[in-house]
Amino acid sequence: MEIKIKIKGIVEKITKQFNRLKTRQRTLALFLAAAILFSFYYNAVYKPQSGALAKVKTELSNVNNRLLKLKSQLPDIQKEKETLGAAKRNLETLKAQLSSFELQLPTTGRIPQLLGELVRQAQGLPIDFVSIRPKTSKEKKEYAKLIIELKFNSTYSDFANYLNRLESLSQFLRATDIAMEEMKDGFRGQSDVTLTLGTLLGEAEAVKPEEEKAPQFAAPLTIERNPFLSKFRPAKEGAKKAEFQLSGIIASGKTPTAIINDEVYRTGDIIGNKKVKQILPNMVILTDGRESTVLTLERE
Q: Is residue 141 part of a domain?
């Protein structure tokens, strides 16, 4: 209350003194008072707030700059979506191609048919099969591998033609090893051939085999001379062939098969005047109803 009275007295005193001033003096006094008030407002209110506002603006600018920098570092979402879509389409195309290739692979259930086809490819060529031994293996890979070892007697020219036929049989069938050695006893120019073939095996279920058709063979190659045979070596007379020649056995599975005289037979099939009675891992038993004939497979 006392402060209000003092302030009121001061105001009245200043008013009386202001009224005593002349017009020009009053104008100067008003300008002076306005300058004092402006200076007080500028230093006490505007300047601190202006500094704080400038600081806020600077921080906001820094934040915007950091945001723009982060945006420039981020990938283009639309572009990434398009790239991902293209990658997915390529993956589907590759999966379709892989499925197509897998359908062309031989399966475990089709091994007998494949072995029979290997024998059929020798039709018309004087090739005598000694043994055909398939072996499957699967390591730490997705597909099993089938290794087939074929042993037969042939001339160099006939072997070259046979190999040429096998090359067109399947794009997955490859010759992994070839060994040729001149026969000690046999016709001139004949060699003991060991041919190792390899192919991948598919995992699809075996389908019903189609009706066999006569294979279409390429034009035979012409080999003028066996490079393993000396021109001055005399010819040897060959021994008489056995009536039944066993060259391969597949005893695994529900339907064992055997390759006799370069043809595939199963239990119950007729060969000549005999019937296939039983197929064992190392022998085949034939019978004509009265007596049995045992064919053994040569094992090393």
A: yes
